[in-house]
Amino acid sequence: MIATTLIQWFSAAGRVLPWRQTRDPYRILVSEVMLQQTQVERVVPKYHAFLAQFPDIDTLADAPTSAIITAWQGLGYNRRALYLQKTAQTVRDQYAGVFPRDVAVLRTLPGLGPYTAGAIACFAYEQDVAFMDVNIRRVAVRLWSDPQATIPADQALVTTLATHIPAGQGWAFNQAIMELGATICIAKTPQCPRCPVRAACADYAGRRAADEQLQPIPVRVLKKVAEKPAQPFIGSNRYFRGRIIDLLRVVPGNGGMHQSALHAAVVALGEPIEPAAFDSIVTKLASDGLVVRDGEHVQLPQ
DNA sequence: AAAACGGGGGT
DNA sequence: ACCCCAGTTTT
Ligand code: SF4
Predict the structure, then answer these.
(1) Which residue minimizes Cα–C1' distance to C7?
(2) How far apart are CA A197 and CA A148, in angstroms?
(3) Looking at the predicted structure, is the pLDDT value of residue A229 above 90?
């Protein structure tokens, strides 16, 4: 049975990560939101620092938003920091401080999509639910879909995953399959000879069969998640957004800056931008809730 | 369905 | 300079 083999392999070879040592839903929430589009190695130190500063969900709900945005430095996708606090406030205000455990309810919380809602239900409450991130999806495609056919839709893959979860072992199964995708069944060069479930893998079997016919075919590589922008990062919209938030983070007491001074400080970093274009970026940041504007004064939200 | 959203580290 | 990487929201 594939699942049992995976779980045994994970038990012996899985990495020890801080969020694998707890079932506290708040800590799982923080870890899962941080891990969205962000590598494990980068999250680990931020996770510890964040929990030291915001040790429980009420502390996070009550904290100045500027402090949370500042604590988010280095993680990127700063709106996640806003969603995290909104989720904390929603749990406090709408759920009487009791963290929801139902996937459908979790899915309604800000910043929690299908992956994160399932991950919290599973990793905090040990529910036998199926969900996919990019690693689980890649392993599911290679293990259980016909290499000659088109890749199944996500809903079909989740259904297949659900059938493989051994009753009562959802936590271990999902950790194991995610770990396999992160460490062995990697995107371009899977380490199949080291894979614990290679004997049951459709993709590996297909490649070996092709080898015997002297017609080697490449490992199934999934389509890239997103195209890279043709424009270089320096001078991009994202670049300026990042520089603006970085500058506002280090103003003592979140005192903010006059927009003209902020513009000058950004330009001083080396990349020119017209005041009108700069203003539209600040406007977008304000509509995102990442900055607050009062006349010409700009600061992080208190 | 497509675009927007960050940044660090490796090559 | 270019590549990769534990998704979600907005348009
Ligand atoms: S045998 Fe290879 S392709 Fe199949 S699951 Fe294992 S690492 Fe992935």
Answers:
(1) A36
(2) 20
(3) no
Provide the CA A161 to C1' B1 distance, Å, integer.
26
User: Smallest CA–C1' separation from A242: which nucleotide?
Assistant: B6
Give residue-wise pLDDT tens across range A151-161: 999 999 999 99
pLDDT above 90 coverage of chain A, percent:
88
Shortest CA distance to A117 belongs to which of A60, A176, A158?
A158
- CATH 1.10.340.30 placement within chain A: 24-123
Does the CB atom of residue A203 touch ligand 1 within 6 A? yes
Domain ranges in chain A with CATH number 1.10.1670.10: 134-212
Task: Give mean pLDDT, residues A84-91.
Answer: 98
pLDDT tens per residue, range A121-150 = 999 999 999 999 999 999 999 999 999 999
Q: What is the structure's pLDDT at A232? A: 80
Name the CATH topology of A237-299: Arc Repressor Mutant, subunit A (1.10.10)
Look up residue A243 and give its two tokens: 């520089």
- Indicate which residue's Cα is closest to atom 1 of ligand 1: A198
Nearest residue to A85 (alpha-carbon basis) of A65, A55, A99, A113:
A65
Q: Output the distance from A291 CA to C5 C1' rounded to whole Å.
A: 27
Asked about A126 being catalytic, the answer comes back as no
Q: Is the CB of A187 under 7 A from strand C?
A: yes
Q: Which CATH class is domain A24-123?
A: mainly alpha
User: Is strand C within 7 Å of residue A287 (CB)?
Assistant: yes
User: Domain A134-212: which topology?
Assistant: Endonuclease Iii, domain 2 (1.10.1670)
Q: Which residues of A in 171-200 have their CB below 7 Å from strand B's atoms? A: none
What is the ipTM for the molecules in this complex?
Answer: 0.93
Question: Please, what's the b/e burial string for A230-267 (b: 16 or more CB within 10 A of its CB; e: otherwise)?
Answer: eeeeeeeeebbbebbbebbbebeebebbebeebbebbb
